[in-house]
Amino acid sequence: MYKLLIVDDEEMIRRLIAKYAVFEGHTVAEAADGMQAVQMCREQKFDLMICDIMMPELDGFSACREIRKFSDIPIIMLSARGEEYDKINGFGLGIDDYVVKPFSPKELMLRVDAVLHRYHTAGAAHKEASGGQVFQLEGLRIDLAARIVYVDDTRVELSPKEYDLLFYMIENKNIALSREKLITQVWGYDYYGDDRTLDTHIKLLRKSLGPYAKFIVTLRGVGYRFDTES
């Protein structure tokens, strides 16, 4: 199936996740801290990483920040805390899902399957739809095939999910997109989160786009629209 990297300073948690992952047919590697996780991701290719936040040497957020410099591996974060700040920080780093401890190993495996499905489905669909096109509106330029965004000739880094959201909105520009539609199309039918995740990503995306955040219009009680006509 897939090769997973499990990162947690608690050996019992790593063993528990590994047990269920192997049962599902995955192969597993383990790291006890963020430093080890970064090094392993440099040396090996993994299909998904499950990473705790609070760890010695290098915490989960810092590890993800370093890994995102060279890899777009799907990441599920684990945390004993459920504060909105942690979720915003994590999504801003490009994580794909967030699970609060204590968690059900069975549910975690369902989330693993869902994230992997979305990652591979979105990648194939994007490659087919982009066709090497470049979208430009005022000082906003997007190389759709290369997944590169420029704001006034300055390249800006978007998380994979921010880019998926932007791509879908541009693909459906000037159309009112309900919150349910955006979540279904960008996160998938099997998404386990709530619509606050969408709001968080819209906020982060607007920040990345700077003066061109104006193109993302909020439709109260409905959702959002990428508006090129106003």
Structure, described:
By secondary structure, the chain is of the alpha/beta class. It folds into two domains: 3-122, Response regulator (Rossmann fold), CATH 3.40.50.2300; 131-226, Arc Repressor Mutant, subunit A, CATH 1.10.10.10. It has eight helices and twelve strands. It has helices at 11-23, 34-43, 60-67, 84-92, 105-130, 160-171, 179-187, 196-209; strands at residues 3-7, 27-31, 48-52, 75-79, 97-100, 134-137, 140-143, 148-151, 154-156, 177-178, 216-219, 223-226. Strands 2-1-3-4-5 form a five-stranded parallel β-sheet, sandwiched between helices. The protein has a four-stranded antiparallel β-sheet with strand order 6-7-8-9, with no helix packed on it. Helix 4 links the parallel strand 4 (75-79) and strand 5. The longest helix has 26 residues, at 105-130. 31% of the residues are buried. The model has no long low-confidence stretch (mean pLDDT 86).
Question: Summary?
Answer:
The protein contains eight helices and twelve strands. The protein has 230 residues and is of the alpha/beta class. It has two domains: 3-122, Rossmann fold (3-Layer(aba) Sandwich); 131-226, Arc Repressor Mutant, subunit A.
